[in-house]
Amino acid sequence: FRLALIQLHVSAVKSDNLQRACGLVREASAKGAKLVALPECFNSPYGTQYFKEYAEKIPGESTQKLSEVAKECSIYLIGGRSIPEEDGGKLYNTCTVFGPDGALLAKHRKVHLFDINVPGKIQFKESETLSPGNSFSMFDTPYCKVGLGICYDMRFAEMAQIYSQKGCQLLIYPGAFNMTTGPAHWELLQRGRAVDNQLYVAAVSPARDEKASYVAWGHSTVVNPWGEVIAKAGAEETVVYTDIDLKKLAEIRQQIPILNQKRCDLYGVEMKK
Fold it and tell me: Which Pfam families match (predicted)?
């Protein structure tokens, strides 16, 4: 099946972001994509100072638009970090998934908040305004089961291992790595998660905006279970297409059967919730 990653140029105008995102979703569908993913924070600038201003409840304006375009195009639509979600007085970094009938299939709240300090390069603390999610998020399609993470979640190998144990064959991470961590770790982490778990990994970023307060690395990427980069964007707004070959996944797992060779008598990773 064909996967499309929409590397969107995000502006400060929510309505413009929504309109352009839906237009690119329609374009991807017309080119045969059955599963389409938007980047983290696609409808608002990324930054703790913006989260409260742009926050919505779910369902709300942005998710309603996503539901409508998913149904119109009869696709599975991963809404990136569609919005800062407001719920019960708290804010969450939330990704929604809609099916071909427009129904909400999954809602992933970012589990690991991006609190880092690289002296002289970048300091960021999502926990100043956001609360963490407390659950794994998976959804079924006719093609395969898909596991979700958001950006910083990709650094935590245990999360990907749980998804693999639960039968996921594709992991999707809407993300917005920056100009420090992006060139160092963006592709490396995707390849690591793919090889460790013998599955496909896709990470979709906003396009780079040098004038933004937070500059995203871009380079939306798809990696196959052999650890090969099979599709990759540059920094500009674009749509990345790739065909996900589950037969190749099965062949790799048969050739190097690490998933059946784990020493569960010596170690293990388990899901607690």
Answer: CN_hydrolase (PF00795)
Local structure of 126: helix, strand or coil: helix
Residue 249, C-beta contacts closer than 8 angstroms, at least 6 positions apart: 169, 198, 199, 200, 224, 225
- CA–CA dist 10, 47 (Å, integer): 12
Please check whether residue 199 is in contact with residue 162, taking contact to mean a CB–CB distance below 8 angstroms.
no
Share of the chain above pLDDT 70, in %: 99
Q: Which of 110, 168, 187, 237 is catalytic?
A: 110
**Looking at the DSSP assignment, which residues form a beta bridge with residue 84?**
93
Q: What is the pLDDT of residues 76-99, one digit of tens each?
A: 999 976 668 999 999 999 999 999
How is residue 112 written in tokens? 């690991």
> 16: which residues sit within 8 A by CB, 6+ positions away?
none
CA torsion through residues 167, 157, 86, 46, sign: negative
> How far is 242 from 233, CA to CA, in rounded Å?
11
* Residue pLDDT, tens place only, 150-163: 999 999 999 999 99
Which residues are CB-neighbours of 104 under 8 A, at least 6 positions away? 58, 59, 63, 67, 96, 97, 98
Distances (CA, A) of 182 to 154, 187, 232, 266: 12, 8, 14, 35
Output the pTM of the full model. Answer: 0.95
Answer whether 207's CB lies under 8 Å from 237's CB: yes
What domains can be seen in the chain, in order of their start residue?
2-256 (3.60.110.10)
CA distance 199 to 244: 10
Q: Which of 34, 40, 56, 107 is catalytic?
A: 40
270 counts as catalytic: no
* Residue 41 bears catalytic tag: no
pLDDT above 90: percentage of residues in the chain: 87
